Amino acid sequence: MSAVLDHPTGHVHDHHDDHHAPTGWRRWVFATNHKDIGTLYLLFSFTMLMVGGILALCIRAELFRPGLQFFNPELFNQFTTMHGLIMVFGAIMPAFVGFANWMIPLQIGASDMAFARMNNFSFWLMIPAALMLVGSFFMPGGAPAAGWTLYAPLTLQMGPSMDAGIFAMHILGASSIMGSINIIVTILNMRAPGMTLMKMPMFAWTWLITAYLLIAVMPVLAGAITMTLTDRHFGTSFFTPAGGGDPVMYQHIFWFFGHPEVYIMILPAFGIISQIVPAFARKRLFGYASMVYATASIAILSFIVWAHHMFATGMPVTGQLFFMYATMLIAVPTGVKIFNWLATMWRGSMTFETPMLWAIGFIFVFTMGGFTGLICAVAPVDIQIQDTYYVVAHFHYVLVAGSLYALFAGVYYWGPKWTGVMYSETRGKIHFWGSLIFFNITFFPMHFLGLAGMPRRYADYPMQFADFNALASIGAFGFGFMQVYFFLFVVIPMMRGQGAKAPQKPWEAAEGLEWEVPSPAPFHTFENPPKLDVTATKVIG
Predict the structure, then answer these.
(1) Cα–Cα distance for residue pair 485/495, rounded to 1 Å
(2) Where is this region: Disordered (predicted)?
(3) Is residue 83 part of a domain?
(4) Is 259 in the active site?
(5) Domain that holds residue 304
(6) Do the beta carbons of residue 164 and residue 136 sit within 8 Å?
(7) What average pLDDT is seen over the chain?
(8) Which of 48, 285, 328, 503 has CA 20 to 30 A from 70's CA?
């Protein structure tokens, strides 16, 4: 939406900028401004990305060659478990909430999030949860080693760190639910006059749908881990066969949360890509309405496919067939999205600045991950590749190349609006190409390892798997160093204001209300909401 703001001079109200804005530590500890809270979320998630990344590098260092080099198998399993939990709940989800906090009020013309103090609380809840997760390594018996899925009966045999992990997950779940309520109320109640739901930016749409998913499934996870807790300490037998319980029931409950969770981590990424591709193709997004319906379809279908994670548990053939076909059905709306992005680029006047490179990289590598997911969905094939490195390759192609690439794309795209300075295009491209190459060196060989039968979560392996594992480990260290490079040479200079001053609209064809405020975005924006022309996508003054 090209726009003129509702003000006689055509300028944004930033005259309150000098007061109301707290300074020093109080600005951050008591933050109620959506931009500050968004920044806190993004910094927190990057910190957790580094912690989870260090655990990943410990895993890859151990697997560089056969035999036990550095860690015993128990500690190795703690690394795999905590790497998964920290990356999912500490890095990817908070990063998207940071984007939501920063961008949704700017995109819909709202002055802030609906519940500013609850917004602050939902962020600060994450700090003790993260400390409990990371601190579990220093508890008697070490961190949980049951895999990130926390399957019974392993979880019933873990030390006290398992309880700390369960408590941390509860707190993170409460934070997610509060954040989701805030996002839903903000989007439904605080849009600028004239902005109907079907005129909202795609990022706002994807987050609205994601927030509903979070509210639906976080209580399910809470139920599963509470049952685990009572089995551990209060004599219940939900998952203990000796007492009449069923460990497979845990898997059903967990994956009823876990599969929609996968889409919680990818739908906001779809929204970011849907903002970036039209801006650099200099065309309107192809099939906006179909994108909205496809996103909603993915969310609804995500509730009926959970047991495709469980083909090897001995479910009846009828159940296998249902979950196999339901999973294949999800490929349809996902394919619609990819088709729409490609159609947007088709015959567009494309340029390849860093955000567009990340967006195209996302489409390319995420599609590969989607195809391997379809292969995993075929029950007879999945029985062979279940719990092998093929599955590890699949979900890292979807999550690293999906969620993480979109997050990087978003930082480069909206970063100038946040900080007021342009990043270095050269450094951005080094970060992109280095990450793309090292990512594929890391995870592509894992498809072959999995097809050859190498199981996941093993600290040792036969000599026949040595070459591909060495290659994957080299790629992992390269990929890790590229993210340190990103922080040191892209993020920190932008935060310090080093670089060319960003114009109000750094990308000429970018559309949306966020480009109608100065760069950097002032502390208070849209105190008087902009008025949108109901018949068009223009904003009237």
Answers:
(1) 15
(2) 1-21
(3) yes
(4) yes
(5) 266-522
(6) yes
(7) 92
(8) 48
302 assigned to active site: no
Q: Are residues 184 and 58 in the same domain?
A: yes
Q: What is the pLDDT of residue 532?
A: 84
Q: How many domains does the chain have?
A: 2
To the query of whether residue 148 is one of the catalytic residues in this protein, the response is yes
Q: Of the residues 211, 246, 265, which one is the last residue of a structural domain?
A: 265
- Is residue 175 flagged as an active site residue? yes
Has 308 been annotated as catalytic? yes
Q: Which of 337, 394, 396, 417 is catalytic?
A: 337
Q: Is residue 531 over pLDDT 80?
A: yes
Check pLDDT > 60 for residue 233: yes
Our answer to whether residue 252 is catalytic in this structure is no
Mean pLDDT in residue range 425-452? 96
Q: What is the DSSP string of 192-219?
A: PTT--GGGS-HHHHHHHHHHHHHHHHHH
Q: Looking at the predicted structure, is the pLDDT value of residue 11 above 70?
A: no
Supply the Cα-derived Rg of the chain in whole angstroms: 23
CA dihedral sign, ordered 155, 156, 158, 161: positive
Measured in degrees and rounded to the nearest 5, phi and psi for residue 326 equal -60, -40
Helix, strand, coil abundance in the chain, percent, nearest 5: 70, 0, 30
Is 8's pLDDT higher than 90? no
Do 352 and 250 belong together in one domain? no
Single out the residue in 208, 239, 265 at which a domain terminates: 265
Residue among 13, 17, 47, 148 flagged as catalytic: 148
- Active-site annotation holds for 447: no
Binning pLDDT at 50, 70 and 90, where does residue 529 land? Answer: confident
The band of 13, judged by pLDDT with boundaries at 50, 70 and 90, is very low
Pick the closest to residue 99 from 270, 213, 262 (CA basis): 270
Per the domain annotation, does 540 fall within a domain? no
Q: What is the CATH number of the domain that holds 140?
A: 1.20.210.10
Same domain for 277 and 187: no
Q: Is the pLDDT of residue 14 over 90?
A: no
Q: Is 83 a catalytic residue?
A: yes
